[in-house]
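Ticket #4471: structure export looks truncated?
Reporter: QA, pipeline team
Priority: medium

Steps to reproduce: submit the single chain below to the structure queue and open the exported record.
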Amino acid sequence: MTTTSTAAPVAAGTERRERSTYGRLWAGVPRELGFLLPTLPIVVVALTVSSTLFSAGTGLLFVLIGIPLVLLSLFVSRGFGMLEVVRLEAAGRPRIPRPRWTPFTTRSMGDFLRPFTDGHYWLALLHTMVINPVIGIVSWVISFTWLTTGLGGVTYWFWQRWLPEPERGWNLLDVVVGWFSPGAVTGVSQRVGDSVVYLIVGVILLVTLPFITRGLVLLHWWIARGMLAAFPSDALRERVSDLSSSRTAAVAAEGTALRRLERDIHDGPQQRLVRLQMDLAAADRQLERDPAAARELIAGALQQSRDALDELRAISRGFAPPILLDRGLVPALESLAVRSTIPARVVSELPEETALPAELERNAYFVAAESLTNAAKHSGATAVEVRVALRRVPDGDATWLEVVVTDDGRGGAAALPGHGIAGLEERVHGLGGTLSVDSPAGGPTVVTATLPVMTDLPPSVR
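Actual output as written to the record:
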């Protein structure tokens, strides 16, 4: 009894899973037929257009006009290839990664002929002119025949009454029964016997239709995945290009920061310190002859020293303050907000146990400090908010630190060469991140920086 009661739920659960799987197959049949049934006209048009252009182009290569025709055949094949990819995704298949097509230009002969050296174009041409016509015609014939025969079989009993009376003297049911039992007859009329056989065949075909459509669509998908998808080397090449671009941007940002620091020190504290030295020297000369004038010069020197100290503090905001190194990003941002000339508040969405790399915190602090400085100088804002959070990339494993600085100023901020936002863009891009500025006229201005996090994170973040 125990064994029976245990096996029964297991069998019931297996049966439910099988029904569920079969139901999911049937749910995909409309989309799969939407892919398979239009395949024949599509592959015929694609084959006709691409083969005409390619054959005409290769035949006219000796008069040069053939080169543009062959090139056009490559672009036409590319278009039909991408149409196949889109149709497969609409049929419910997983997304196929697209190749990174190089923009076509005619600025030079090398740019004009570049598609001839791109293997993706030739694979698309092979797919459009050879592979897809063969597979497309076969899959269309199978799916169309399977569907129409199945529907015709299960409905034959209804519409056969309008057909002429058969004169062959035998029915299909007798043939089937006689094959299993020679000499046996059913005694039914030809119409009834034919209707029974057609009904059985139609039911079998319709029951198996989801497996046929799924198999044919998967065949198309695997072929497209192998011939029309991006090469694995494309992602590596793009990554190398991005790293090279990021390194160039990082070097440029570092050079810009050093030149700006040199300019700020030269035009600000250095000039004030020179003035301070001159005032103190003059006061020293006036000390015995004119004490009142000496005191006035000393008062001016004190003011110069205070101004120089304020400017040094403003310049040092671009560097990591001790509180950042000692207590982390959020306390450093709160300290920055307290010192801001505009009322500012910090909103942290970081889990308390999150530990970020020191270099990442320093750059995030710099982005917030530079954005606050720009808001104080140019926006006319009365309030600023600094928000930090960790974001996950959808369908990926990457995690980004997001720093968002929002002010209620007049708006109109733009990245001008040599100015603060342009410098921020270079710095963030050099770190492999992105910077976006949304600043419509009338405000508000939202500066969003996303920086890649390259460290182990706590489970609550992962």
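Status: closed, not a bug. The export was complete when the record was re-opened. Leaving a note from the reviewer for reference: The chain has 15 helices and five strands.
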